[in-house]
Structures are given as C-alpha cells and as structure tokens.
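Predict the structure of Oxidoreductase.
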Amino acid sequence: MTTVPTVARVPVARPRPSRAAADQGARLAAGATLWLSLLLVTYWWVADGGLGAPLAGGALVLSVGRLTGLVASVLLLAQVVLMARVPVLERAFGQDRLARVHRVVGFVGFDLMVTHVLTTSVGYAGGDLLASPGRLWRLVLDDPGMLLAAAGTLALVMVVVTSVRAARRRLRYESWHLLHLYAYLGVGLALPHQLWTGQQFVGSAARTLFWWTAWALAAVAVLVWRVGVPAYRTLRHDLRVTAVVPEAPGVVSVHVAGRDLHRMPVEAGQFLTWRFLAGPGWSRAHPYSLSAAPDGRRLRLTVKDLGDGSREVARLRPGTRVLVEGPHGRLSARVRTRRHVALVGAGVGITPLRALAEGLDYGPGEAVLVHRYAERPLFAEELAALSLERGLRVVDLPGSRTAPGNDPRHLLHHVPDLAHRDVYVCGPEEWATEIGRAALAAGLPPEHLHVETFRW
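Done. Here is the predicted structure for Oxidoreductase.
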C-alpha cells in the first residue's frame, strides 16, 4: 500500500482586497511622480526660452539638446529606482510588469541621452555638422565633469547593447546580471557634469533642490535595498544549506535553514536571489522561487539544470552558507481578492505554484492546479497529499504543448469557471503569454490574472 506524504501545516493566507487596493494606489502614485517630474523639467525649459530659440547659429539645436538632456536625466534616475528593488514598487508592479516598464524607460532614456550628446555638440559648433565632433572632443576635455560623463555614457552603452534580445540570448544570466549593474556606474558618473555645468539644473534654488533630492533618493534606494537590507538579512538569518534532494532527472530541491526565519518577510509564491558560498562563482546571483510555503523554520527552492550556475546547485553540500536578496515577485497571496483560485504552470514553473497550493487558504474545490509537463510531474506525491488533506484539484497535462488537450486555448475546458477565479500563471514566456490570452478571452478580468515568466 502506498503511503501519501503529509504536507507540513503552515499559516495560510486569506484574500485581502486592501493590499490589492494599496498596490493600485502605489502604481498610480509612481506613474504620477514620473510624469509630474517630466512636466516640471519641461516647464523650466520653456520658462528659460526653450521654445523661442532662434534658428540661426545652432541655437535651436542646442535648445533641443537641453530638453532631451533634462528628460533623459529624469528617465535615467527612474531607471535606477526601478532597479533598486524598492519593496513598495516590487509589491505594486510585480517582476514581469516592472521589467517591462524598466525596459521601456531604459531604452527611451538612453535614446534621449544619445540625442542630447549629438544635438549639444552640434549646437555648440554653431550648427556646423562637420565641426561638431571636434567641439564634442573639446567639451569632454575642458568642461568640468565631462570626462566622467563620457565614461558614464560608455558604461550605459554597454548595458543597453547587452540588453538587446539578440545579445541576451548569447549571455549567461549571471554575466548579464553583472553587466547590468554598470547602469548604476553610468548614471552616477553623469552626476558631476549635470550639477556643475547644467544651467537647467542649478538655475534656481527650486531646481537645485529638485535635482539634489532626486539624486539623493535614488542613491539611498540603491544603498538601502540593494546593499543594506540584503546584508542585514543575510547576517541576521545565517542561512545554511541543510540538504539537496533529487526530485527528477536534472531537478533538485535545496533545503535551507537559518535563524529567526519566522521574521523574514517572504510569502509562498515569491522568489529570492541566491548566492551560494561554495567556491568560485559565489558572487553570481541566481533567482529561484520557493517551492514550499515558508514555515518559519526552513525554506525550500527547486532548481532545474539549465547549465552554468543551475548545474552547480546540485553539487551543494550541507553547511554551505547562503546569501540572499529579496524576497521579490508578486505571485503571492498579496494579489488575491477572490476565494477561488486557479494555478497554471508548465515544467519547473510549477515551483511557486506548489508553494501557493500549500500557503493559500481555500476549501475543497476552491483551488485547482493545472500542470503541463513533458515527462514526469514534479511534486506528484506532495500534490496528492494536498488534494487529500485540503481538497486541491490537480489537473495533469502530460506531453508536449501540442499534445491533445494541452493547447492553452483549451484552458477553459479544464477550468470551466476560470473567469470567476484569481488565476496565477508561471512558465516559459511564450507559453505564459498564450495562457494569459486564453484566460482573458474566457472573460477573466485583467486585474485577476497574475503572471510570472522565465524572463530576464
């Protein structure tokens, strides 16, 4: 007789519409702050005669250069804040949405920065295109802070080039993540140039206060949330690997224990950025979701061997120290406003959904988990236990995506009342996008669709 394992009892999370309302307010406030900042610097440009610049002598081109520099500065500062892992933004937007905003703001800000460099050099050259390279060279060498600004521009060029999809496909995640941190350096090196020589930045007490406050807030956000808080949590909780357990061919679960884990603000469905102090490569960051609901004593993450750092995880030994950053992600009880939920995952994307199936509060029939997998399902016995003990309905979809019944458009067949649930989706980006479209086509309101993809 087969014995089904008992799932550990953890505190369950009930729907809290107030948190969803708070996140909506945070999104509106963040968007309003960005747009008001852009309008304010544009107003200052207009007040200084930006619209009345004469056509002759390159004055109009120089005026455009000043405007693009102002707007680019606001967007690059916004980019820094978006990268700073500020909890209120993480909770409000979620990783996928934040990544999209980050990408758009970053590329627009970079394009405007390049336009600023080109138009400013042409403007200072009196509109002479042939003379502008020489004028730009003299500006870099002679004006205060310009040499640093040039170095910062090169750093940002490297970040943008490696962010293009074609380049990202050729890079390991760990390498891309390290290169991406140069964006902080690039923006930071531009600070002296803007605040020493930019009349639009220091032309009045109000402008000086605005720019210094914006720069200070961005710097504090990075120092606190990217450095201070991760260091504090790592030292306080003293996380160590306790076991590495094979789950399937090429898939292992890492069990981690530590001190006062009941005080770590992590929820089922979220992920952390992990660094394992196990020799060379320890500085590389790995974003892995929890595959079990945190119980205050231990954490569990499940990793598939996709090459590079993920392959090394299977070789970890008990006692290995762990550095963490996070938690991150909005695929948690925070976004839930309905009693009924549907958890839809593909492959190893089941990991955060497995944690949610354990950590959410629901009664028999109120939660359904749909799992598509190619060969064998992960956590089959654990999900069977949740089915027996808590009434979780599990729908297995074995085989490829093109197998009968596995097409995302058939989702409504497996969950007929899909439109009346909160729907959580995790898996490869293309597949998750198709699932999202199918759910919305079935009548699900967009605010009840919560997606996390394997994208960086």
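Confidence is low (pLDDT under 50) at residues 1-6.
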